[in-house]
Amino acid sequence: MPRAFEWTYACAKVRFGPGAVEALRGYLHGYKRVYLVMGRRAAAESGALADVRPLLDSLGIEYGVYDQVVPNPPSSLADDLAARVSRFSAEAIIAIGGGSTIDTAKVAAAIAANGGSSLDYLYGRRRATRCLPLFVINLTHGTGSEVNRYANMTDVSTGDKLGNEVCYPTASFDDPRYTLSMPLEEVLCTSFDALYHAYEAATTAGSSPLAQALAEEAVRRIAEYLPLAASNPKDENARYWLMYASMLAGVAIDLSPTNIIHLFENMLSGLVPSLPHGCGLALIGPPLVPLVHSASPEPSTRLLRILDPNVRSPEDAGAALARFVKHVGFSRRLSDYGVGKDIVREAVRRAFKNPVVAERLRNRLSGVQLDEQRVLQLLLSAV
Questions:
Q1: Model pLDDT for residues 124-146, shown as the tens digit of each residue
Q2: What percentage of the chain's residues is helix, strand, coil (to nearest 5)?
Q3: What is the pLDDT of residues 32-43, one digit of tens each?
Q4: Which residues fall within 8 angstroms of residue 87, CB to CB, at 6 or more apart?
Q5: What is the pLDDT of residue 2?
Q6: Which helix (H) or strand (E) holds 66?
Q7: Quick count: other Cβ atoms within 10 Å of Cβ 326?
Q8: Which of 25, 108, 173, 356 has the fewest CB atoms nearer than 10 Å to its CB?
């Protein structure tokens, strides 16, 4: 196992590697009341909660617990959490989980410090000038939310899922041991999320050489280590490098945002929350990638040749991604998650109608005019 290390990105302090969470102790001196945020099972099953509770007890810190976070979380969760945090007079939030938990905690931390509602931040109507201190114990290797400023939630008033910049964590802790309890499908699908973070950050209009370099390293690590993790889910070394790749991809999208694949998938998983985000990306990515490749052929070719040296055309690009996800053992379709053709039609309609999403669709690919009917036909092939 490579050793643990520390680094700083933006204003987030990151501790990475085995035993990372012990460094949380140094950040919590002086706090008297904190709030723990998690889902219903992962914090306990991973062993992270069992490490955090004694640490808090040893420091004499009182804590409340919010364990209601669900995948593809509705915006109402952040509003509810913020209200509980305020009533408890919590001085900080500790999020223990993957992207859904971290994103819910980010939005709640912004509300608790600045007022407003979750939708104010998701739609950019309000900016967080400060946030309640937020400490993140990451349990997956997919979202990269532990290092960047973005949060994604579903607008409960419309059913549209979207993301916006909210706040950076104060400090984050990435320990690959906590990912070993993940079910195989979650291992695959969170890694697909990181893969598409990297690919889209590198191909979005205006992407920088730095974002592209981080993306390329992330794709190399995923290409090498996801097959190993899929064949041996207890391989901690493979998890180390998948978590590392996810972290790099999380920084890449902070520097250069995702584009149409994430935008359309967010609409799908907003409508059908049981669709795991990364699985949705793996399914709609291959039919949409030719459009992305046409807009940014050079970075697209460079990244996808890591998966398949023979990539030359837009069609090759989509096929390379489809073969990779099949190679690691993922062979589902949208319909396996209850996503039928009518839901795809509604997701595409909503994407072009939502003002925030529609603007991003217009601006994130160079020289490509998206046609609603063309996009619909491409996505229907994934049902």
A1: 999 999 999 999 999 999 999 99
A2: 55, 15, 30
A3: 999 999 999 999
A4: none
A5: 83
A6: strand 62-69
A7: 12
A8: 25
- Neighbouring CB atoms inside 10 A of 371's CB total 10
**Cross-strand partners of 95:** 37, 136
Domains in the chain, number: 2
* Residue 1 pLDDT: 66
Domain edge (last residue) among 178, 193, 220: 178
Cα–Cα distance measured from residue 240 to residue 221, given in angstroms and rounded to the nearest whole number: 10
Residues in the chain, pLDDT under 70: 1
Count the residues in the chain. Answer: 383
The model carries a pTM of 0.97
Give the residues across from 164 on adjacent strands.
151
Residue 344 token pair:
């795809």
What pLDDT digit, counting tens, does each position of 144-164 carry? 999 999 999 999 999 999 999
Closest C-alpha to 368, from 198, 201, 204 = 204
Residues 141 and 195 in one domain: no
273 contacts 321 by C-beta, under 8 angstroms = no
